[in-house]
Design a protein that fits this description.
The chain contains 15 helices and 17 strands. It is an alpha/beta fold. A 9-stranded mixed beta sheet has the order 9-10-8-7-6-5-4-1-11, with helices on both faces. The protein has a 3-stranded antiparallel beta sheet with strand order 12-13-14, with no helix packed on it. Bound molecules: S-adenosylmethionine and iron/sulfur cluster (SF4). The site of iron/sulfur cluster has 11 residues, from loops.
């Protein structure tokens, strides 16, 4: 097993206000933001994980949340400088900052760029005032438009807009109108997520009425065509990119690359090529506990040889192009033949297909990706502890 490319994920767990649909590790900020203390904790976290990281320069960094744009450009710069000093940056490193349009003052993006940010992901969600209110968003459509203008002016035209669809009582035309509004802001990338009702959220307690499956199918068709007409190609279940603007960081997840995860609740995945294994890591989840914890409290779990091929495939099938045999073998250290038995029934159901030395989801499989993922989940291991 060779060391794959290395990325860094840093989690920022606070938001101005928790959205009713969101089950990310994000918390309404009730007191003052513990900005310095949190960045100090991130630096300690990185430092304590370094001995387990095989030396490679970083190909991407993702500053995600929560709302990282609550942190000042100076704090983001401090973290990036430290990461560069500790690990080194690849020449064309991608550094993405997630931003909420409601947290951006004039001139702030230029400062983030000066601090080392190369790409921004803006949570637009919708341009419909009624939906923004239902979704509990803290910003208007006009604030999203202004943030996009600011991004272009700051030289950060390589930005993504997050949209959600299948919103409460949304029609297919309304979903298409959101895409058109988003495209008019000239982003380089669009992410389009199906609104899911997650356990434990406000929406789970009082679920809104979502459109019927046929309408959702129509939304997806209209979206795909509208984006294609604008020169955007779908390359991932939720990801559409203009030429050359695929997200390096997300591609690294789907291609089973390595990533160090720092911050409250952050996940990581690291290969140990000498021992021929890969590990998943998870940090303390609750922000205040994370701040007080020893970063060595990080939980590490080896991915067993039994789970490895399926974990790889569950990621790889999210890509329109699927995955090649060579990548599978390089990342897992296993022969591609180990997937054969699991693929036979999926091929028979028309969900996956074999291309030129690669596996990929069919158009039907792509629409029902969950069915592939469920079929790939290994049976519970009878020898494992409960
Ligand atoms: C961690 S948020 C990052 C952006 C920033 N916090 C914001 O909301 O502006 C990532 C994205 O996940 C999507 N998301 C969160 N919860 C979701 C849900 N229940 N269903 C579908 N998409 C969801 C939203 O589009 C959101 O922008
Ligand atoms: S969607 Fe974004 S802003 Fe809303 S609670 Fe989740 S992380 Fe925070």
């Amino acid at each position: 097993m060779k060391s794959p490319p290395l990325a860094l994920y840093a989690h920022f767990p606070w938001c101005v206000q928790k959205c009713p649909y969101c089950d990310f590790n994000s918390h309404t900020l009730r007191d003052e933001l513990p900005e310095q203390r949190y960045v100090d904790a991130l630096l300690r976290d990185l430092e304590s994980q370094l001995p387990e990281v095989e030396p490679r320069s970083l190909t991407s960094i993702f500053l995600g949340g929560g709302t990282p744009s609550l942190f000042s450009p100076a704090s983001i710069g401090r973290l990036l400088d430290h990461a560069r000093a500790q690990l080194g940056f690849a020449k064309d490193i991608e550094v993405t900052l997630e931003a909420n349009p409601g947290t951006i003052e004039r001139g702030k993006f230029a400062e983030y760029r000066a601090a080392g940010v190369t790409r921004v992901s803006l949570g637009a969600q919708s341009f419909d005032a009624r939906q923004l209110k239902l979704l509990g968003r803290i910003h208007s459509a006009d604030e999203t438009r202004r943030a996009a203008e600011e991004l272009h002016a700051a030289g950060l035209s390589n930005f993504n807009l997050d949209l959600m669809y299948a919103l409460p009582e949304q029609t297919a035309d309304e979903a298409r109108a959101d895409i058109r509004e988003a495209l008019a802001l000239r982003p380089a990338h669009l992410s389009q997520y199906h609104l899911t009702i997650e356990p434990g959220t406000v929406f789970a307690a009082a679920p809104p009425t979502q459109p019927a499956d046929e309408i959702v199918d129509e939304m997806l068709d209209l979206s795909l065509h509208t984006m294609r007409d604008a020169g955007f190609e779908q390359y991932e279940v939720s990801g559409y990119a203009s030429a050359g603007a695929r997200c390096t960081h997300n591609l690294n997840y789907w291609e089973f690359g390595d990533y160090v995860g720092i911050g409250a609740g952050a996940h990581g995945k690291l290969t140990n090529s000498a021992r021929g294994l890969a590990e998943r890591t998870q940090q303390t989840r609750e922000p205040r506990r994370y701040l007080a914890a020893d970063p060595r409290a990080l939980v590490r779990k080896t991915i067993s040889n039994r789970d490895l091929p399926f974990e790889f495939a569950m990621n790889g099938f999210r890509l329109v192009e699927g995955f090649g045999d060579e990548l599978f073998e390089a990342r897992t250290g296993l022969a591609i033949g180990v997937l054969e038995d699991a693929m036979i029934p999926l091929v028979a159901r028309g969900l996956v297909e074999r291309g030129q030395k690669r596996w990929r989801a069919t158009a039907k499989g792509f629409r029902f990706l969950n069915e592939i993922l469920v079929a790939l989940l290994p049976d519970p291991d009878p020898t494992a502890n409960p």
